[in-house]
Design a protein that fits this description.
Number of helices of chain B: 12
Structural class of chain A: mainly beta
Helix content of chain B: 10-25%
Keywords (chain A): WD repeat
GO biological process, one term (chain A): meristem maintenance
Largest sheet of chain A: 4 strands, antiparallel
Organism (chain A): Helianthus annuus
CATH class of one domain in chain A: Mainly Beta
Shape of chain A: globular
Radius of gyration of chain B: 30 Å
Largest interface: A-B, 29 and 29 residues
CATH superfamily of one domain in chain A: YVTN repeat-like/Quinoprotein amine dehydrogenase
Main location (chain B): nucleus
CATH class of one domain in chain B: Mainly Beta
Oligomer: heterodimer
Protein name (chain A): Putative transducin family protein / WD-40 repeat family protein
Shape of chain B: elongated
Distance between the termini of chain A: 50 Å
Number of strands of chain B: 59
Largest sheet of chain B: 5 strands, antiparallel
Radius of gyration of chain A: 27 Å
Strand order of the largest sheet of chain B: 1-55-54-53-52
Strand content of chain B: 35-45%
Distance between the termini of chain B: 26 Å
CATH architecture of one domain in chain A: 7 Propeller
Strand order of the largest sheet of chain A: 2-3-4-5
CATH superfamily of one domain in chain B: YVTN repeat-like/Quinoprotein amine dehydrogenase
Chain lengths: 782, 863
């Protein structure tokens, strides 16, 4: 169907940053991941067939090293992070910014823990689930899994405003307690007495009356919160004495049954009776520091992970054969998915969205019955899953219930993928230009397409570095290839690219001055004729700049209703924008998945599309064939076609969206882009993720019906057989044809109508660039 | 191994192989039919094939051994017999004979009270279809239960169940046996030959209709040490049965299945808790906890269990009835050994790595007993749990002091043949004989030479030829090719080849070793790197009288080495021998494939492919070249003083030729595939080990299960004097060895000097017999000769409880142990020493009585 031009370029730099902390939101539908470069990602926990979606990325301060994340407070959830330099940041997920709530206190903060809600005993709702351990666990609920499902519809009904306390484990040996309130406060409350060593870990008991702190000299101390005195002290191991190396207690977990779990640098995970501080069980299965602990919602399983890359499951085993009920924590098994140290663990429970339309619900339920991939076999609504992340920059999801049975699921095959745009610069005899956005600079590359079937190559033309090494949030290149722009979190910049002479380095870049009133942006886009630049500022307005005379021509305010247009902006910031070829339409998508359509000719908002079945928009675009047809791909792996003029779902979508083939629902990896052939008479779109691409022809019928006949067949072997035969059929059929990639793919773009450029980068090359060394594994006999 | 003596004209009368050979042998100068046997033709005893014979070299590790109740004896299944070893000395004290096929298991009847810890009864099973009951203190068979099906494994749960002892009426003893059902026709069609059946041992019959399971092949049954559960592993699943509390006739046996994704190799039960562990083919150990909570739990408890959430079974696959399944992974290949310690705190595992791993069950902490150096096969613990034994694949049983995992004693059998890579198959010999001392030197897998006494059936010593750790990897980096011993056994020569790694570093080393005076330690005297440049050494031969050796190589030359003693003047005790090259010879650049010195040492015969070159070894002069054969000669041997030389060549046209040295021509030859040639020193007899060609001799081979024959020739005559059929002849060897001066009763009736013929088969089982004797009377190795009979008292309970006895007393015992001959009265020395340092009389009494018992049984054996 297409000529595929593969390009595995070494000139494209891709340096993902290790994940240092994870936290699950209070409703357990989102997981926040902090990376070492200071950025924060919000991942939507999704069950079953649907791939995980990185909902938000907030570029933080690269100089601040996040040590832990805590999600607490009111049901909406406030996300705090502590830093090694002693400051506490609050992340604003609505404005996509962060602010410092505690100025550096002079000593490092190693961990934070939020107080479990005291009202939980009275009203055991899962939405009151507390965060027990800063970067590890967020599930203090007493309910079983079934109750979560039953209660999930009430999630947002009770806006409980409560002042939660947060305990900070500080380097100087103090545990400091801060109070948070809904009125933006983060105030110092008190300090527990200072003790020797560094406090590395802290957690609250489930009744919030006690605080357990673990320190670098090998002690766990139990504190009475009210009286601020030490109740008892546990010697985990002797460390820090004489010539012995320090024994660091990296993580503590308090379970509902009164068991305290500690993880330390000697590689052992120990279970203590928290009422007396006595040892129950000790396991030393890790071959290195144990960095993180997590417990399943039922608190009968504990997971530990450490610098040996393993995630280990322990289970509370009740010995029923003897007359006395002996409870014992036993080692069950390990899974080694990470190639590097594991830094953080968290448990999340995927929940179904409440704003699912009823008729959709029926159909989705049907599709969930039939598992295809192993991830689908265990990842279901209401079933807890474990997420681990670490130095290899990847996130893995495991089944918490059937941990050793299923292979972990790679949530993000291409972490921190550099955004890439491809344009064809027609001014000088068809030069293909790539704009690659690295964290601190932009790269312009030319593509040499090898038409003989070899690997295409790229050639660096220019590199534009940001002054002061500020992080680049977004960038764009004009379709003509003449202009490109980027924005850091200070201001946007526009550049003009010229070619002078015929020499190889005959490119020159000149900076153009944008109107000073334009704030820094979350998204930028050139119109298709390259005459206008659309900038969605962080003040939630969209600025349209005429590139020719550098004047601000218009300012849109996205709003839900058209009459609200003159009011100050209230909507979340726009993170994605698409424009039509004829320059009439501008579609702006916010981070939650709402779509605003603007008419650039009338300069008015045309339409507002509320988020589609509660899912975010992963990619979209206007078709070149019909300029008023917008195609949207959502995080729940649906494809929608909108008719702009009619302000409704397109004809194709009416018929087909809910009968999309099963295999499209199981799209491997998160959809990261769409590409259209540059032709006005083609109805084809190529949807791609980092692991596969799929071709959809809107002009052809889809036969989703042939999936229905084997829904009820439970015999796996015949199912497999059928699937195989079906797959072979699919190759002959053009529509929804899948093409799997071997290596992570960064970008797929049409060069011409019949040729597609695929930019891939072998993961081994990426791994080699990591600072951290992979886990050394001794091979027997060497 | 069986040896059949037959008169050739009885069983080999049609003798297709020999007749055919004669016809096709071109060099044959003798036209007389070879099968006219004048030996024994007039003997009236020809139909009673009996020859006095020593057998030995059995495998000790075919089945797990068992400890006696006082842990002083270890019962080891050795072929058709059960050998009883003393755990104190590691020497054999008795054996139980009676089974006619391989003994597959031995179960000691446990003592219920400490009082009758001296009970010495055991049950054994065998492939001959019988279960036998013995008193092993006096080696007496008490009872035989004939099952008529080969029994592969047996467990007796009621022995382990302590409660049942209290009941007044002794209930019937039931056993669960794993048998191979070869009779039922329908089972053959279903390809289910293995069965697990129940057997009433008290009534000596199988329980009718109680077939618990049917499997493809008979499986080994494992039982929990409290006797409540037993199970088998089959492919990827294990089955566990609960033993009914009241064992009767019509009891249903509840069982559960647990599955895994890999083939399982062994299982073990926890002594107290409901925990079962299994090892798989990839080295993982799975520990199921709380198995059978639903199936085996009592009815009234079931309602309570249902309330528990169903899917909370981490690690358990499918519908497996277990609470959780833990996976441990340390072993890199199949786990062969799994055993829970008697208190249930540890799990021991072992496999191909030769490392015994002790897992602390609660924490998963490991401790290791490394450097065993060979794959482990089974683990057995004694009733008092301070002793246990591990059986290793190199035919050795180590007795361990248990909490510390420390090797106390080793019981070594003859080492098994080592697999040789194909490229070295021609240039390796497996063992050589020390003809004067009656030893065989066996090349072992871990680059050692084991010296094994054929008369005593035990290991004498072991010499490490090159330092290498045991590695369970498949790629061989080094190989020990050849071993040669001088005639008096004082010099050993070894050849080893180091493989090139990635094209670099491969070379051949020739080493000479000296034996120091009395003890059997060999010391390295000379190392010669690349003795024949990069070519491999094909043979090493020693001069019969002088310190001279010849090595022949495939590179086309041979070298004669001589040793010169240089006594260092300052220290007379240190005497060094150095071996140096004396001469180099070659013949037409042909590869030299075999070498031999004549009996007086005046002639060195070196085979240059198809011809034999004769040299004067002193002057290095080529004396003569004789004959040619079709294939390269692989074996040369001068036949005594007779002036004949025997040669054997392999290949497509194998040939046995006897050359007349006086005429320098072939005397006679046969087309036979010769595996080994042995010639006697003095007279003109020689014996050859011949592989029987399979197709032409099918009916003979099947009738006797024999694949080889030993033919005894007189050098001048092409007619075999005698012949014996043997099994497993491939890789076997022959030698005439000098009989011991002590046991002169063996060969008093025939011509002295020719000695006994020792035959070692491909599995290193051996037999020694007098080839000229008329009668075969199977005789045991006289172990009792070598057992210091006082050892038992030295290790009596006193030392282990109260510490060591005063020093001088031990000395006295040891001294007496060395000097005491079997005829002396050992019990007299027990009471020697001051009375205050003697153990209490009650302690000494049992030891005293035991030593008396010991003595008598030993006397009974020697007769």
């Amino acid at each position: 169907m297409f000529d595929l031009y593969k390009c595995s370029s070494t000139s494209i730099e891709w340096n993902p940053s290790p994940i240092v902390a994870l936290a699950t939101s209070l409703d357990e539908s989102q997981v926040a991941a902090a990376r070492e470069d200071g950025s924060l990602e919000i991942w939507l926990v999704s069950p079953g067939a649907v791939g995980w979606h990185c909902q938000l990325t907030i570029q933080g301060d690269p100089n601040l090293r996040v040590s832990s994340l805590v999600w607490c407070g009111s049901p909406a959830g406030r996300l705090f992070s502590s830093s090694i330099d002693g400051s506490v940041l609050e992340w604003d997920l609505f404005h996509l910014t962060h602010k410092v709530v505690v100025d550096p206190i002079g000593v490092s903060i190693w961990q934070m823990a939020a107080q479990p809600s005291s009202r939980k005993q009275l009203n055991p709702k899962p939405d009151l689930a507390s965060i027990e351990n800063g970067h590890t666990i967020a599930n203090g609920d007493v309910t079983s899994e079934s109750e979560i499902e039953a209660d999930s519809l009430e999630l947002h009904e009770e806006p409980i405003i409560e002042n939660a306390s947060i305990a900070l484990a500080c380097d100087d040996g103090c545990v400091r307690i801060y109070n948070t309130s809904s009125s933006d406060g983060f105030t110092y409350h008190k300090s527990l007495p200072r003790v020797g060593g560094r406090v590395l870990s802290v957690t609250w008991s489930t009744d919030a009356k006690r605080i357990y702190s673990g320190s670098s000299d090998g002690f766990i101390r139990c504190w009475d919160v009210k009286l601020s005195h030490e109740v008892y002290r546990i010697t985990v191991g002797l460390g820090g004495l004489g010539s012995m190396s320090q024994l660091c207690v990296w993580s503590i977990l308090a379970l509902r049954c009164g068991t305290l779990v500690s993880a330390d640098s000697s590689g052992s995970v120990q279970f203590w009776d928290s009422s007396h501080g006595t040892l129950l069980q000790a396991h030393s299965c890790h071959k290195g520091d144990v960095n993180a602990l997590a417990a399943s919602p039922s608190h009968t399983r504990v997971f530990s992970a450490g610098s040996d890359g393993q995630v280990i499951l322990y289970k509370l085993s009740v010995d029923k054969s003897s007359s006395i009920m002996m409870k014992k924590w036993v080692y069950i098994g390990y899974v080694r998915a990470h190639t590097h140290d594991v830094r953080a663990l968290t448990v999340a429970v995927p929940i179904s969205r409440e704003d699912l339309l009823p008729e959709e619900k029926v159909k989705r339920a049907r599709s969930k019955e039939k598992p295809d991939f192993s991830y689908n076999k265990w990842a279901h609504v209401g079933i807890p899953m474990l997420i681990s992340a670490g130095d290899d920059t990847k996130l893995f999801a495991y089944s918490a219930n059937e941990f050793t049975r299923f292979a972990p699921h790679d949530i993000c095959p291409a972490p921190q993928r550099p955004p890439i745009q491809l344009v064809c610069r027609t001014a000088d005899r068809l030069t293909y230009l790539l704009l690659v956005q690295a964290p601190h600079w932009l790269d312009l590359l030319t593509v040499e397409v090898n038409r003989d079937g070899g690997v295409s190559t790229t050639d660096t033309v220019a590199r534009v570095k940001n002054r002061g090494l500020r992080k680049i949030i977004c960038s764009s290149i004009s379709p003509s290839g003449r202009f490109f722009a980027y924005s850091s979190h200070v201001k946007p910049c526009l550049f003009e690219l010229k070619k002078n002479g015929t020499g190889k380095s005959g490119w020159s870049i000149s900076k153009r001055k944008l109107p000073s009133s334009i704030p820094f942006a979350h998204s930028m886009l050139f119109s298709s004729d390259s005459s206008r630049l659309m900038i969605s500022g962080h003040d939630r307005m969209i600025y349209v700049v005429d590139v020719g005379n550098m004047e601000l021509t218009h300012r849109f305010t996205p709003c839900r209703k058209e009459c609200d247009e003159e009011l100050p902006p209230t909507q979340p910031p726009i993170t994605k924008m698409f424009t039509s070829l004829d320059g009439q339409w501008l579609a702006a998508v916010n981070c939650l998945g709402d779509i605003y359509i603007f008419n650039l000719e009338t300069q008015r908002q045309h339409w507002f599309i509320s988020r589609l079945d509660g899912a975010s928009v992963t990619a979209g675009g206007f078709t070149p064939k019909h300029s008023n047809v917008l195609i949207i791909s959502t995080s729940s792996n649906q494809v929608y076609v909108f008719d702009m003029e009619a302000k409704k779902l397109g004809e194709w979508s009416m018929h087909n969206t809910f009968v999309l083939p099963r295999r499209y629902q199981d799209f491997p990896g998160e959809v990261i882009g769409l590409t259209f052939p540059p032709s006005t008479n083609s109805s084809i779109v190529v949807v791609y993720s980092a692991r596969a691409m799929c071709l959809i022809d809107f002009g052809m019928p889809i036969d989703g019906d042939d999936d229905q006949d084997n829904i009820n067949s439970h015999d796996s072997s015949t199912l497999k057989l059928k699937r195989k035969s079906k797959e072979t059929k699919n190759i002959s059929r053009k529509n929804f044809e899948f093409c799997l990639f071997q290596e992570p793919v960064l970008f797929v773009g049409h060069l011409s109508k019949g040729s597609v450029l695929v930019l891939e980068k072998p993961w081994m090359q990426v791994v080699k660039a990591f600072d951290a060394q992979p886990v050394h594994r001794h091979i027997y006999g060497t | 191994m069986r040896i059949y003596k037959t008169r050739i004209d009885d069983t080999l009368n049609p003798s297709p192989l020999l007749l055919k050979n004669r016809d096709t042998t071109p060099h044959h100068s003798d036209t007389t039919p070879p099968l006219t046997n004048n030996f024994g033709s007039g003997s009236p005893l020809q139909h009673q094939p009996v020859i006095e014979m020593i057998r030995g070299g059995k495998s000790f590790v075919s089945s797990p051994p068992a400890f006696s109740n006082d842990a002083k004896k270890l019962l080891v299944c050795t072929g058709n017999t059960v050998s009883v070893f003393s755990t104190d000395t590691g020497l054999q004290v008795a054996d139980l004979e009676g089974h006619t096929a391989l003994v597959t298991s031995v179960i000691v009847v446990p003592s219920s009270t400490p009082a009758n810890a001296l009970l010495c009864y055991c049950w054994t099973t065998s492939l001959d279809g019988t279960i036998r009951y013995w008193d092993f203190s006096v080696s007496e068979l008490i009872k035989t239960v004939d099952i008529q099906l080969p029994v592969y494994s047996m467990v007796i749960p009621s022995f382990l169940d302590r409660q049942s002892e209290n009941s007044e009426t002794q209930p019937d003893t039931y056993a669960y046996i794993s048998v191979e059902d070869t009779k039922t026709e329908q089972n053959k069609q279903r390809n289910l030959r293995g069965q697990i059946r129940k057997c009433n041992l008290s009534k000596s019959r199988l329980v009718r209709g109680a077939i618990l399971s049917e499997t493809k092949k008979p499986e080994k049954i494992t039982i929990s040490s409290n006797g409540k559960y037993f199970g088998v592993h089959e492919k990827r699943k294990i089955r566990v049965w609960e033993v009914p509390t009241k064992d009767g006739k019509n009891i249903s046996h509840r069982n559960i299945k647990l599955t895994h994704t890999k083939n399982l190799s062994c299982i073990a039960f926890h002594p107290t808790d409901r925990i079962v562990a299994a090892g798989d083919a990839t080295g993982r150990i799975l520990v199921w906890r709380g198995f059978g909570d639903k199936t085996f739990a009592d009815k009234d408890l079931e309602n309570e269990k249902v309330s528990k959430d169903e899917d909370d079974k981490p690690g358990v696959r499918g519908e497996g009835d277990a609470d959780s399944c833990t996976t441990w992974h340390w072993h890199s290949s199949e786990v062969k050994v799994l055993y829970f310690s008697s208190d249930g705190a540890y799990l021991f595992s072992g496999g191909k790595e030769g490392v015994l791993v002790g897992w602390q069950l609660d924490t998963g902490k490991k401790k290791f007993l490394p450097r065993i150096g060979t794959p482990l096969l089974s683990f057995t613990s004694s009733p008092d749990s301070s002793l246990s034994s591990i059986s290793c694949a190199d035919n050795r049983i180590h007795i361990l002091k248990m909490p510390r995992m420390e090797i106390l004693k080793s019981i070594s059998g003859i080492k098994l043949p080592t697999p040789v890579p194909d490229m070295f198959r021609g240039s390796c010999n497996d063992f050589v004989f020390d003809r004067t001392a009656g030893l065989v030197a066996v090349r072992t897998e871990n680059y050692c030479i084991q010296f094994y006494s054929l008369f005593d059936d035990r290991e004498i010593s072991e010499v490490q030829v090159c330092e290498r750790n045991h590695q369970p990897s498949d790629d061989v980096t080094m190989i020990l090719n050849l071993v040669a011993l001088s005639f008096d056994g004082s010099v050993m020569c070894t050849v080893e080849t180091r493989m090139a790694e990635e094209g670099i570093g491969g070379f051949v080393t020739l080493k000479f070793w000296d034996r120091r005076s009395q003890n059997n330690d060999y010391n390295l005297s000379t190392i010669i790197y690349e003795p024949h440049r990069d070519a491999g050494v094909s043979a090493v031969a020693f001069h019969p009288t002088r310190c001279m050796a010849a090595s022949a190589s495939y590179g086309g030359d041979f070298k004669v080495w001589v040793s010169n003693h240089d006594i260092q003047p300052n220290d007379k005790l240190i005497q060094r021998t150095r071996w140096a090259c004396h001469a180099v010879g070659s013949y037409q650049k042909k590869p030299m494939t075999a070498a031999a010195f004549s009996n007086d040492g005046s002639v060195l015969a070196v085979a240059a492919e198809t011809v034999v070159t004769l040299w004067d070894p002193e002057k290095n002069v080529l004396v003569a070249v004789i004959g040619s054969t079709r294939e390269p000669i692989g074996n040369l041997s001068f036949i005594g003083d007779s002036g004949f030389l025997a040669s054997a060549s392999h290949g497509a046209n194998p040939q046995l030729s006897v050359w007349d040295m006086s005429k320098l021509s072939v005397s006679w030859s046969y087309k036979l595939h010769v595996e080994a040639i042995a010639s006697s020193d003095k007279d003109s007899h020689f014996a050859v080990l011949v592989l029987l060609p399979e197709p032409s001799n099918a009916e003979v081979a099947t009738s006797h299960n024999a694949d080889g024959a030993i033919l005894l020739f007189n050098a001048g005559e092409p007619v075999a004097v005698a012949s014996w059929f043997v099994t497993k002849a491939k890789g076997g060897g022959l030698a005439f060895i000098q009989s011991r001066s002590l046991d002169d009763n063996m060969d008093e009736n025939d011509n002295p000097g020719s000695g006994l013929l020792a035959y070692v088969n491909g599995d290193h089982e051996y037999a020694i017999f007098n080839p000229h004797g008329l009668e075969t009377q199977e005789r045991k190795v006289r172990h009792t000769d070598s057992v210091p009979s006082l050892e038992v008292t030295g290790q009596s309970g006193y030392a282990s409880i109260y510490g060591k006895l005063p020093e001088f007393k031990l000395n006295a015992i040891e001294a007496s142990a060395e000097t005491v001959t079997p005829s002396e009265r050992p019990w007299e020395t027990i009471f020697s020493g001051p009375s205050h340092s003697l153990p209490p009389l009650t302690k000494l009494c049992s030891a005293f009585l035991e030593s008396l018992l010991e003595k008598r049984s030993g006397d009974g054996l020697v007769k």
